[in-house]
Amino acid sequence: MLKDFEEIRRMVLAREKKTRLGVIGSHETHALEAAAEAMKDGIVIPVLYGIKEETIEKWNALNTGMEIPEIVDCRNDEELAETVIRDAHDGKLDALLKGKIYTQVFLRAVLNKEWGLRTGRQLSHVLLMKVPAYHKMLFLTDAGMVPYPDLAVKKDLVLNAVNVCHKLGYECPKVAALASVERVNPKMPETVDADALKKMNESGEITGCVIEGPISFDLSISKESAEIKDYNSPVAGDADVLLVPEITTGNVLFKALSYFAGMEMGGTIVGASVPISMISRASSGQDKYNSILVAAAISA
Q1: Distance between CA atoms of residues 56 and 68, nearest Å
Q2: Cα distance between residue 181 and residue 67, in whole Å
Q3: Chain segment 176-235, per-residue pLDDT in tens
């Protein structure tokens, strides 16, 4: 199990190959700052895609003491999206970091049938979270990509998150399919889906993990709560992956933990041919740096 982002950093630094990172919209300060820090640490070789003069100005303002990386001058979002995605499609980049570009324009390019990054898998967002009050890192899905997943899509979300865990060294991550109650209620679709996912896991349809559901948030992260409620499960109080019912729950959860609980985070889109580091536009440079770490760690 991973306890913090420093463990992921050491994991990445132990590799000989540096990750070629495409920074999409490099004229955005936090993304450029994160890429510069990762470059300084020997984790990535950045390629900067954006408005050249603005990128140079912002790079110089960082006072990194390093020579500016390669810049690919792109004057608008459409040109920017197509240029970087074509380069990733052609194998010139190992991972991507979203900077200043409209998300819809960027994702439309990712999904382009001719030169996009489709793999046949569901695209989903996995957010790694280091919450001070919890004894290890948490993986949250999906708080940034899929609004209202049905059961089939939730299965894909689990598989994607579990795959990330495996790449980071987990053998059998514990997945909590979250709901507000622990009993199946036909009037609460999230409980029905959670129960179905658990049965898929028990039958061998979903492997490489242990799934519990429906399970409430408190039971998934607190052994004390589980003992008080007499709830027995290997996932109780020890969850690795939190599967939320829909995007709003996930969005509120991670923002509450970030603003009120001092959480560190790093997020990436998976399911494409390269990992795509993408978190909230308001996220700090450190959170974007953490996202680069995650992408670099799973890009091999």
Answers
A1: 8
A2: 55
A3: 999 999 999 999 999 999 999 999 999 999 999 999 999 999 999 999 999 999 999 999
DSSP letter assigned to residue 147: S
Locate 37 and state its tokens: 């820090």
Strand 70-73, strand 44-50: pairing: parallel
Q: Could you tell me the two tokens for 110?
A: 């990712």
The CA-atom distances, in angstroms, between 274 and each of 20, 102, 170, 216, 285 are: 11, 19, 20, 33, 21
Helices (H), the chain: 5-13, 29-40, 52-62, 77-89, 103-110, 151-167, 189-203, 217-221, 223-228, 247-261, 285-298
Whether the Cβ atoms of residue 48 and residue 25 lie closer than 8 Å to each other = no
The pTM of the whole model exceeds 0.85: yes
Complete domains list, the chain, with CATH? 5-118+272-299 (3.40.50.10950), 124-264 (3.40.718.10)
Give the HSE-up count for residue 224: Cα atoms under 13 Å, Cβ half-sphere: 1
Separation CA 207–CA 130 (nearest Å): 26
